[in-house]
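Suppose you are handed a protein chain with no further information: no name, no annotation, nothing but its sequence. What can you learn? This example shows the usual starting point.
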Amino acid sequence: MPARRALHVVTGKGGVGKSTVAAAIALALAARGARVLAVELGGAGGLGRVLGVPSPVPVMAVDGAAALAEYLTRKVRLGRLGPRLLAHPLYRAFAAAAPGVRELLAMGKVRDELVLQDRWDAVVVDAGASGHALEHLRMPAAAARAFGAGLVHREAAVNAALLRDRAICRVHVVATPEEMPVREALQVVAALAALDVPLGAVIVNQCRPVAPAGIDAAIARLEGELAAIARRARGWERIQERGVAVLEAESGCRALRLPRVWTGDVARVLAGPCEEVLS
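A reasonable first move is to predict its three-dimensional structure. Written in structure tokens, the prediction is:
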């Protein structure tokens, strides 16, 4: 079992397999004997589907509006007025118009589960697409600056401190090896540095095996449809290698390559390679 708690946050461009990678990390931690909670920010989505039913790792969907209601109920001590206040149209209008508050309290819920509850050694967060994830990661520090004192400042400050804690928190950035996902991954890496939030692994998902030496000469001897298929595969491999090279050169990190998997239980297949994320 891990000696200390850990927070793993996973993000990247839509469609690169963030939920699958988050599930694989959660399974890798559980295989080590850790008590793991998987969290989806923004409500139930892909993570629960990837892990399956019943899930081998508990999954919690954290919605900002629900986190705000829980916060008001527990910390402001609304008492018997709570249900009536939270059902009032003015409250619903406030919650809908205050995305920063929702994001702040969603991260507070993640911190509560990791730090205040004595149930989990690790929390793995599927933070969604890059822009959505960065808003959640940015908000605690921004709120701590905006509110110089008081309850909101204290809550924001402890959440911001957790996200900056390199002994606990790591944000893993996932891409596939094409130009747009690579560029978005590099933007996230730069944003994390500006926020002083620790970067974990830079992960390239759905990688093809690198062809052996002499493959081009062998392809040149092929004819017909087989030759066309081989040339297309070789073209995709060149795109992949260019994308990985750009990502590594501009991020300054070695990319962790995850293979393209064709089986139905993708997260379990990738749990082994994701062990490197935990080292």
